[in-house]
Write a structure and sequence with these properties.
374 residues, alpha/beta, 7-stranded mixed sheet, disordered C terminus, binds guanosine-5'-diphosphate-alpha-D-mannose, binds manganese (II) ion
Length: 374
């Protein structure tokens, strides 16, 4: 790498092959020949964005590629890109040309002056604009911004912005505390910093996407809530345990409904009904967890079958532990009173924690990632 690289621009990509060359060209025109580099962080895009970047990098030493396998996620991509940089200033921007790159020199100048930690490209301060967003998306963005006030102390007008530049010292400061879940990396950084950050917002107009399509779908909302939850209670509870336990609760309803239908409705024996209901509830839980709790490491294809097998196996052991502990406590506690409820609750808790811990490692392989480090 060029030893005089002052600025690294981290660009997360997923299916952006038509945009990367144009972006590099724009950066070159704006920032000149030296002093900067761009790191594309690609999550193995099916459209082969990575090979397009590699091709450009052959001709241009300022272009680098971080090719991630088996993982998805905008925030975690940004974190790894920033950590791969050794430059004193690091920017994050989208690949799709919706962020106005002409803001970069001003951002850099603001940081060089030395009084700031972060400069944010903002769509909400005077003369900034959302461009041609639909009413629904504007509203969603407003709601998310309002919610963020729950955990965000700073008066940031556009905490949802995916366009910003910071001093590298700040990355080193917060890297270990970032959630890395979902889309909202800037918010994550602000909340993770244990001090008020010195920041400035520069207005710009959010452009229209020319090529490719947005990856922000309805699931983004649930990831956003997960990230906020992580910031609120992540210190005390592993954050994915919350949706996991919630889905487990839903599984109980599925179980009861199936059992009721088979046992009472169709007159099956209790044991046959109970076995079928258990299997169906586990399967239901597996798919829901795969969709929500572990959305960023979702299993597909054959991985689904493997995952389902390990999940049902782990949960079967969990069920045995649950019943065993509950029964033991039930006999060990005085007769009458509320002890049967306490015994059952203890069994359920142990079973749930077991199920969570084992499936996190064996089904979703989620230990040691930023999002589950705690
Ligand atoms: N590596 C990686 N992995 N990159 C991703 C992923 C992913 O899972 N998902 C999206 N990206 C990349 C896209 O290729 C694009 O370069 C950038 O992240 C932003 O994704 P878009 O899909 O274009 O997002 P958007 O335009 O709808 O949302 C923008 O506005 C939001 C404000 O509400 C982004 O700037 C968001 O960061 C911002 O929060
Ligand atoms: Mn976009």
């Amino acid at each position: 790498m060029n030893p005089h690289t002052e600025l690294t621009i981290v660009v997360p990509t997923f299916n952006e092959r038509a945009n990367v060359a144009k972006l590099v060209e724009k950066l070159q025109g704006l920032l000149g020949d030296a002093g900067w580099e761009v790191i594309f962080v690609d999550d193995d895009s099916p459209d082969a964005t990575a090979s397009v970047v590699r091709e450009i990098a052959l001709r241009d030493a300022r272009v680098r590629l971080l090719h991630r396998l088996g993982r998805r996620g905008l925030a975690s991509a940004c974190i790894e890109g920033m950590l791969a940089s050794t430059a004193p200033y690091v920017a994050v921007m989208d690949a799709d040309l919706q962020h106005d790159e002409r803001l970069l020199p001003d951002m850099l100048q603001e940081l060089r002056d030395g009084h700031l930690d972060v400069v944010v490209g903002s769509r909400h301060v005077a003369s900034g604009s959302l461009g041609d967003w639909s009413g629904k998306r504007r509203l969603a963005s407003r709601v998310a911004t309002t919610l963020s006030a729950l955990v965000l102390k700073a008066d940031l007008k556009d905490p949802m912005s995916g366009f910003f530049m910071l001093r590298r010292g700040l990355i080193d400061e917060v890297a270990r505390d970032l959630s890395g879940i979902g889309f909202k990396i800037l918010l994550d950084i602000f909340i993770s910093a244990r001090r008020p950050l010195r920041f400035k917002e520069l207005p710009y107009r959010f452009g229209t996407r020319v090529a490719g399509s947005s990856k922000l779908d309805s699931m983004v909302a649930s990831e956003y809530i997960l990230m906020l939850l992580d910031k609120l209670v992540g210190r005390y509870v592993p954050i994915r345990f919350i949706p996991f336990a919630f889905i487990g609760g839903l599984g109980v309803f599925v179980h009861m409904a199936v059992l009721f239908a088979l046992f009472r409705g169709f007159g099956l024996s209790f044991i046959a009904g109970q076995t079928t209901a258990t299997l169906l509830a586990m399967t239901f839980n597996f798919f829901l967890n795969n969709l929500f709790t572990y959305r960023d490491r979702r299993l597909r294809g054959w991985g689904l079958l493997r995952g389902w097998l390990s999940f049902t196996l782990a949960c079967s052991v969990g069920a045995v532990a649950n019943v065993g502990i509950a029964t033991y406590l039930f006999h060990a506690t005085p007769e009458g009173g509320p002890w049967w409820v306490v015994s059952a609750a203890a069994g359920i808790l142990v079973g749930a924690v077991w199920n969570y811990a084992v499936t996190a490692v064996y089904t979703w392989n989620a230990k040691g990632t930023a999002a589950s480090a705690r």
